[in-house]
Design goal:
The protein is α/β, with parallel strands linked by helices and 329 residues long. It has ten helices and 14 strands. The longest helix has 18 residues.
């Protein structure tokens, strides 16, 4: 069951809580968080300390997915010798798709050389206009968008994704179904709502193209979508994850949450309920920025799976999805 969790590990060195999540709770996935300027060799040593926990007793011998946020610009976890300084997506866009794909392959090879095999990028959110961008706290304010029309975002963002795949790193497209229309940031604000995006919105084009191209990872945002499922934030929404991703888009890969442990948007729910709600709604892998939350989440999911057959079926399906993606990333 640990394959259903992706826990944070500080990029400069994992803390005891992370190591406990890996060894005691058998978490099968980690992501390097924070910031490190130590370079590829030092990062590889940190990763080795994490992958060294893999054994028949902990993860059943299954390799770890090791991820990080290497978008570029304001969002680049890993820097220093061996890592390029990656520009923000809005600047990357100026290179055009062919050059961007080639550049992303280089950036992906740098990650792989440090043992990182999943990149929590690219951002495929379409910010509605240059004028609105400064007000769009999660994306536009930091130039994380590839443009202001879905077609351009699709061409460029998916060029980045393809470059990562060329390098042997799995790209994670985010934040489905889009954060380009919200004002507050779900990381630091509660009740963040998108009042416009619909189930058949043009802003979904970049995500649909990514899925058609074979991307195996989609991260859902933590926002509410009033025109889609006003009662549930996206990671608790069977409409967003089950109907839109699985049925409408035909996605068969890993539906990844955004961080549900430290984000302000999740404050109304207990730690245990966050995990239960995510998997009950059809999520595949839960991202947790706080390793200390893993024991309560793991125990809650296990207990519910043991007592409720319908929930166990969902948990088993999620685990099988992770296992099917692992061999090929």
């Amino acid at each position: 069951m640990g394959q259903l969790f992706m826990v944070a590990a500080k990029a400069t060195g994992a803390e005891p809580g992370t190591m406990e999540a890996l060894t005691k709770y058998h978490a099968g996935n980690v992501y390097l968080s924070g910031r490190s300027k130590a370079g590829t060799a030092a990062t590889a040593a940190v990763v080795a300390s994490l992958t060294g926990t893999v054994s028949a007793e902990t993860t059943g011998g299954l390799p770890l997915f090791v991820a990080t946020d290497q978008e570029g610009g304001y969002v680049q976890v890993l820097a220093g010798p061996g890592f390029s300084t990656i520009p923000a997506a809005l600047v990357q866009a100026g290179a055009g798709p062919a050059k961007l794909r080639a550049d992303a392959r280089v950036w992906g090879k740098e990650l792989l050389s440090a043992g990182v095999n999943v990149n929590l990028a690219p951002v495929l959110d379409t910010v509605t206009s240059p004028e609105f961008a400064p007000s769009n706290a999660p994306i536009g304010q930091f130039q994380r968008e590839y443009g202001y029309v879905p077609g351009q975002v699709s061409n460029l963002g998916n060029a980045f994704a393809q470059g990562m795949k060329d390098a042997g790193v799995a790209p994670v497209v985010k934040h489905f179904p889009g954060l380009g229309r919200v004002i507050p940031n779900t990381d630091v604000s509660q009740n963040v709502r998108d009042t416009e995006t619909t189930r058949n919105d043009s802003a979904l084009e970049p995500f649909r193209t990514a899925i058609t191209n074979g991307v195996q990872w989609v991260m859902v945002s933590n926002a509410y979508y009033d025109q889609i499922d006003p009662a549930n934030i996206a990671p608790f929404s069977p409409v967003v994850m089950g109907q839109m991703l699985r049925e409408d888009a035909g996605f068969k890969g890993i539906i990844l949450s955004d961080d549900v442990c430290s984000a302000a948007q999740l404050k109304p729910w207990t730690t245990a309920d966050r995990a239960i709600n995510f998997f009950a709604a059809g999520g595949t892998m839960l991202v947790c920025a706080d390793p200390g939350s893993i024991p309560a989440m793991y125990d809650a999911v296990l207990q519910k799976a043991q007592s409720e057959p319908d929930f166990r079926t969902k948990v088993d399906a999620a685990a099988l999805t992770v296992l099917s993606v692992k061999p090929g990333k």
